[in-house]
Design brief:
This protein is α/β, with parallel strands linked by helices and 314 residues long. It contains eleven helices and nine strands. The strands form two sheets. It has a five-stranded parallel sheet. Helix 2 links the parallel strand 1 and strand 2. Helix 1 crosses helix 5, helix 1 packs across helix 11 and helix 5 crosses helix 11. The chain binds phosphoric acid mono(formamide)ester (CP). Phosphoric acid mono(formamide)ester binds next to helix 2.
């Protein structure tokens, strides 16, 4: 009987809820090969030659935008970056018209970040190019969820059955939501903790996660910890007394890290508020894989491009 081969060709990347465990494994397996390219001498392969990609960012980014750009260039695509601040968006052009304009130039994929939840899904309905969601409000950041899975699997050589703690500002975190989508599919035991004002209501009914009243219980014997950034730019204020109090009760410091397994993997999507959600000594300790996440982010984004855009299996 013919093998039922998984193909992601032409698929939009809007949220990890749209991906099966087999599809996620295919992306992570492909990223292993892509990572070798990043570490090699020739970072210009013809896998996507003739393809064009636009990154369209309506919110600031360092890691995601740059790695999507480099990932495309490493695979031989033409990549153009548009940021809202330097585009006709400042003259009042709508998202719809911006997408039509980019599409009219014949691009194959648009990597988009926007402050509104559902913006990527909306773009996928409007525009013909493949849409890759690089973060839409607090909804989803699928490539970050994938790079977290890749980093954990690379070090632990498995995902099934691991205990992962996600701590901090979950309310505003698209990373936490993509983690929960992806990690639950891969059989990870997910524990969350944070100030009650920063825990979204849906968590109380979500059977995929265990919610803790205090961060210590979430961290105990964890195989990996993802510390989330306090997203002050999305807060109207009053969600916690002060950053000093937050650090005292919820911040990841050496004492709290010691509650985890000795070989715990420490993750943070970045950028970090050091001294708030994470202490500086912990951020750079031997358990920290925060820098490795950045390299892995480029590898995972290369894998997405290859699987979605490449004409032939390479
Ligand atoms: N992790 C992440 O999304 O970082 P940037 O905002 O720098 O892209």
């Amino acid at each position: 009987m013919a093998e039922n081969k998984i193909s992601l060709r032409g698929k939009n990347v809007l949220a990890l809820s749209d991906f099966s465990a087999d599809e996620i494994n295919l992306i992570l397996d492909t990223a292993i090969h892509m990572k070798k390219i990043i570490g090699g001498n020739n970072k210009k392969l013809p896998i996507l030659s003739g393809k064009s990609i636009v990154t369209l960012f309506f919110e600031p980014s360092t890691r995601t935008r740059t790695s999507f750009e480099l990932a495309g260039k490493y695979l031989g695509a033409d990549v153009v970056n548009i940021t809202a601040a330097t585009s006709s968006v400042v003259k009042g052009e709508s998202l719809r018209d911006t997408l039509y304009t980019v599409e009219a130039m014949g691009v194959d994929a648009i990597v988009m970040r926007h402050k509104a939840e559902g913006a990527a899904e909306c773009a996928a309905k409007i525009a013909r190019p493949v849409i890759i969601n690089a973060g839409d409000g607090a909804h989803a950041h699928p490539s970050q969820g994938l790079l977290n899975l890749f980093t954990i699997r690379e070090i632990k050589h498995r995902l099934q059955g691991l205990k992962v703690a996600i701590v901090g500002d979950i309310l505003h975190s698209r990373v936490a939501r993509s983690d929960i989508e992806g990690m639950s599919k891969m059989g990870i035991d997910i524990h969350v903790a944070g100030p009650s004002t920063l825990l979204p209501r849906f968590l109380a009914k979500d059977t995929r996660v265990t919610v803790h009243d205090n961060v210590e219980d979430a961290l105990r014997d964890a195989d990996a910890v993802e510390v989330l950034r306090i997203q002050t730019e999305r807060m109207k204020g009053g969600l916690f007394p002060s950053t000093r109090e937050y650090a005292r009760v919820y911040g990841l410091n050496k004492e709290r890290l010691a509650l985890c397994k000795d070989d715990v993997i420490l993750l943070h999507p970045g950028p970090m508020n050091k001294g708030w959600e994470i202490s500086a000594d912990v951020a750079y300790c031997e358990n920290s894989f925060i820098q490795k996440e950045v390299t892995n982010g480029a590898a995972v984004r290369m894998a997405l491009y290859k699987l979605i855009l490449a004409e032939e299996e390479n």
